[in-house]
């Protein structure tokens, strides 16, 4: 079935999103992109031991900066990046907590902290942070995805459904107060994934039909391809390959040019013959809205001031 299994993208916190090849890592791991890329520009390739020593020195250097300037955002981010590169996830908790407290208006920091705690097994702490973000920014899709993943991993799918339905119920009122706060289409797609996890396929298909209509109404000339793709995935897994093929073709034709390769790759994986070699965990339909900016494959940490 198309459900996200307990080891699938949702529970792992690895979002299948509509950017590039549909793959993004959690926010936390976007922090180390700059430091990693920076090291790649050196004249010679350092050994693993050299890299470890250099990263440890970087951590110590930034800690000295924090002794003088405890709220230095650049130093905090630098420590996080270096600790990630060292594979020390627990070492990112303290600087992430400081960033989240220092910049409560930047939800990405709090979400990165929640993701870290979730990966370290501190589920209650992670849930509290996700809920705090959602109190401040009710429609934050990344916080919703994180909390839903956590609830599903605890076999609390009804709680996940309730959370998403409540978000949809209050979405119009929330968007009146703060326009654009809740992306209803993305929330519906996430809800559809949970319904499929519960094997409520008819409910999921009905929701996807509703989302398809919403997308058409929102942009008649270029509707969002995601709900069409999501419905096709369900039909394909149910064995209705003819209906699925028609929807796959529609989704591919509707997808913006920069996403077509990713959509085609997903279709190929889902329609491959049983004996073909494919990823052991099939990708889910994307739930995050396509972006028109020049972002890469992962969310980028907010720039240090």
Write the layout of secondary structure elements.
Elements: H1 9-12, H2 33-39, H3 48-68, H4 73-86, H5 93-102, H6 107-119, H7 123-136, H8 141-153, H9 157-169, H10 171-177, H11 184-197, H12 201-218, H13 226-238, H14 241-254, H15 260-271
Helix pairs in contact: 2-4, 3-4, 4-5, 5-6, 6-7, 6-8, 7-8, 8-9, 8-11, 9-11, 11-12, 11-13, 12-13, 13-14, 13-15, 14-15
Number of DSSP strand runs = 0
* Biggest pleated-sheet summary: none
Principal-axis shape: globular
- Content-based structural category: mainly alpha
Which oligomeric state applies? Answer: single chain
Radius of gyration: 21 Å
Strand content: under 5%
Low-confidence stretches: 1-26, 33-43, 278-283, 292-305
Order of helices and strands: HHHHHHHHHHHHHHH
N-to-C terminal Cα separation, in Å? 47 Å
């Amino acid at each position: 079935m198309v459900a996200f299994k307990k080891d699938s993208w949702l529970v792992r916190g690895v979002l299948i999103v509509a950017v590039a090849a549909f793959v993004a890592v959690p926010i936390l791991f976007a922090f180390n992109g700059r430091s990693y890329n920076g090291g790649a520009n050196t004249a010679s390739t350092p050994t693993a031991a050299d890299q470890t020593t250099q990263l440890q020195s970087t951590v110590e250097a930034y800690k000295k900066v924090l002794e003088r300037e405890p709220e230095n955002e650049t130093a905090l981010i630098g420590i996080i990046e270096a600790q990630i590169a060292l594979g020390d996830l627990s070492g990112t908790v303290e600087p992430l907590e400081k960033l989240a407290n220092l910049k409560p208006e930047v939800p990405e920091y709090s979400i990165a902290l929640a993701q870290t705690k979730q990966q370290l097994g501190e589920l209650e702490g992670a849930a509290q942070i996700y809920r705090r973000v959602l109190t401040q920014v009710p429609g934050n899709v990344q916080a919703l995805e994180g909390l839903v993943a956590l609830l599903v991993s605890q076999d609390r799918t009804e709680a996940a459904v309730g959370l998403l339905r409540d978000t949809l119920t209050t979405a119009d009122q929330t968007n009146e107060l703060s326009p654009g706060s809740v992306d209803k289409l993305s929330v519906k797609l996430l809800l559809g994934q949970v319904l499929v996890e519960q094997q409520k396929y008819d409910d999921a298909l009905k929701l996807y039909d509703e989302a398809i209509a919403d997308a058409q109404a929102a942009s008649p000339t270029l509707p969002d391809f995601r709900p069409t793709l999501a419905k096709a995935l369900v039909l394909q897994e149910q064995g209705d390959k003819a209906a699925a093929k028609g929807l796959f073709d529609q989704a591919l034709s509707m997808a913006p040019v920069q996403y077509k390769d990713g959509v085609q790759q997903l279709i190929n994986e889902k329609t491959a013959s049983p004996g073909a070699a494919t990823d052991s965990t099939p990708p889910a339909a994307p739930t995050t809205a396509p972006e028109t900016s020049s972002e890469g494959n992962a969310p980028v940490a907010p720039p240090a001031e």
